[in-house]
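Colleagues,

Please find the record for the two-part complex below.
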Amino acid sequence: MESLGVQPGQLWYLMALYAVLSVPFLCVSACILAGFFLQPARVAALYGVTMLGSGAGAAGAVGLLYVAHPATIPYALALATATAYLCVASPSVWGRISGWGLVVLATGLLVTGKVQPIRVSEYKGLSYALRYPDAQIAGECASPLSAITVVKSGQIRETPGQISNYPMSQLGTLPEQAGLYFDAGSVSPVHRFDGDLSRFAYLDYVTGAVAYRVAPASPNVAIIGAGGGTEVLSALGHGAIHVSAIEVDPGVLRLLRGPLREFSGRLYERNDVSITIADGRGYLQSHAYQYDLIHIALLDSFTASAAGVNALNENYLYTVEAVSLYLERLTPDGVLAMTCWLKAPPRDSLKLFATLAEAYEKAGPGDPSQRLVYIRSWNTATIVLSKAPLDASRISRVRSFCEDRGFDLCYLPGLVREEANRYVILDEPVHFDFAHAILSPQRENAYRNSLFDLRPATDDCPYFFQFFRWTSLPTLIRGMGTQWALFVEWGYLVLVATLLQGLVISAVLILAPLLVFTRRATPRPARRWVLTYFAGLGLAYMFLEIAFIQRFTLFLSYPVYAVAVVLTAFLVFSGLGSLLAQRVLGRRSSLVALSVCGIVVVVSIYLLALAPAFSAAAGWPDALRIALSVALLAPLAFLMGIPFPSGLQLVTDSFESLLPWAWGVNGCASVVGALLATVVAVHFGFSALTLVAAAIYVVAAFCLARLEQRARGGA
Amino acid sequence: MSSRLRHSRPVNATALVVPLLFLCAVAPPDDEYAAARARMVQQQIAEGDSWGREAVTNASVLRAMRAVPRHQFVPPGQVSQAYDDRPLPIGYGQTISQPYIVGKMTELLKVDANSVVLEVGTGSGYQAAILAELVKDVFTIEIISPLAEQASKRLKALGYSRAHARAGDGYFGWADHAPYDGIIVTAAASHIPPPLVEQLKAGGRLIIPVGPPFGLQQLLVLEKRKDGSITQRSVMSVKFVPLTGRKEGQESASPRAAK
């Protein structure tokens, strides 16, 4: 697949991928449904057990990633499937023989490690790096967070942005680097460091270094996203008396204390550097230290940023609430500095500027316009927010810094429009114009008239990198023709495309066969209630699951923990709720109505109480926070496990011919719901998503009541 | 008189036949390529390209594009597509750039007959040949040694004595012949290499695509003012193979980004 542009032929590869991936899901669904038909009296129990198994699988997969390479996961799945087959086939001799054979084979592959290595796309950073003339892999480390590969090569020359006006012939070339490649994609360099900080003078020639012209001398610095240590070296080179390096991925530290220990000069073992493995925001929330400089720089790779693949990643480091927290952790003269990649047309830095400005207005005191600095090169922008108003000497230092290095000033107290746009020349000084609009009464107009969504992200809608606006699409197409998609965030477009595909494929593969092959003996009203009920449950369940995964990402710090914990809790406790539903006799609609009432009450409480609960428990150890998360999710998930099997049992008892429809429509709705949930969250936030889900549950309860009425009336 | 005619007839036949034989031997057996080349210049470059970008109007550049036999710079299997409006693979993961891009980048360099130019990323040598038609000297460097050797031989064979090719890491430029009136980089880099800026003469221009590998890049025109300060301007969005990449890749140019 050697193509960089869009090739229509790639669609066939995509279809083939769908076909291959659908096989195991098809088989598993068929097994589950067969069980329902074979044991109609125990549908709820069977469903409950299925959920318990799924929950165990969700937790088990993450647990396996702590001890095994991701490439072994398919073999673990094969072993689980072989075990299930053995259980089913064991009554016959051949069944037992073949079952045990599969179990032994899968176990052998898993244990001996004879796994097929993952084929990495040739267009990912690692593939590209391994083609350098002298490239060699110097280490690897895998965890649930990422698989990191260390590459050493003289061709690795990663810089935190454009190095401008750097007199290389006088100050020397860049030190040798090794690259830490995360999931074969983005790279964080590790520098060969022998203790001589003068070799890193080039780090004073990137936009991020402006922070040290504004921060107090000899600052106490916190670096969020320390990675391989570039910003730590920059801080030390700028005279920091202590650097608190915060890095979320434990694999980085393992490598820098392992195969890269001597190469990196034991950077993270210095007395003036402390390394903490934690999420940056969670760390600052739970530790009330004060810093002279908090620096967040280039957390995503240039490639990932340019492609816009992070558009759908919730990012709690760039929200208004996050900036408020950072301000609380600064000394009275402290500064916050944030550096981002620049894209064409510019949007990241504009949104970041708006975020810092609005956050300061909320936090106060005083006017943000006297406290902000905004500069850019051709590929990075740095915005600095000072707690104290900028005085003449700091302003002068910033001006000199930019003039010496050929960086453009976009905002500085006292800057006039003619001074902006001098070095990296744009048609118009858009950065300057936007910054001034944000700090003026024209802010709303600036947001409204922008080609992109530049409103600051909040904790309720933390999609900082989502810039796409449907209302701008005609303008984009007019200005860029057929190439417009290259200039927007791909993540969002892929989501929309996947949603449309989900709708089409669901209709073709699930609904169409049902239309053709099922009997039409059931009256229309009953069919209507069944379809609405099960479709609603599919949507609402996924909406709440997705909403709480996003919510708990903030609390648990690691998205992979949030997915595992929320998924496991939902599946396990929903399973228990389903088992309860099996035991209930009498009116199922009453049980469902009660459970839906419970869901609405719990959801309402969570909308108000989750944020304070998260803040209070932010400093707890990981294990306690996970336990609290499970405790919070358990009652909701338990209640959510009741409606589906209750309805399924009713359909099995009274409208058996509609059982495939119930299952099929619920499957469709689940697929669509997972995608639609993200779309709703991106545009309206988690609270809206949660409320919509609660409303759908209410409608579903009504549908079940009518269905039960029909069943009792013999319709 | 008749004897003069008898003697002159064989001479006249020779006078006709010999030039014809000569033309058959050395004239391009492919007059169609001359026509294709002229069409390429007219339709893809002088009138702007298929994406609606600005035409190349510099007469010297257009003349050079008409003169250099592009088909001599592509692998044998690609000759029939040599004058198409697209880049072509030349092996080792490199490409010969789309004709419009070559013309546009050459025009942006703003060189003349006295210029000394550095090209980073020789590839097939086509860009170097174009430059050799226009400047005093072009020094071209290629990190992939086999490509460098092939390009060097090709340029010599075609008579481009003003083009000097060698293998080496273009990130560090070619200090021996610096400073340069113009520097052209024909592969994408994640940042502008500081050594290249240092080797640029005051008043000179550096043309470079910068951006992520295999992604959308910006074609930057960097000018070094007389006082040594630098200005940069993005001219268009492009996609080049990476500066040290080895894989086949495509290259296309996109319309200028809207502001």
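The mean pLDDT of chain B is 82.

Comments are welcome before we finalize the supplementary table.
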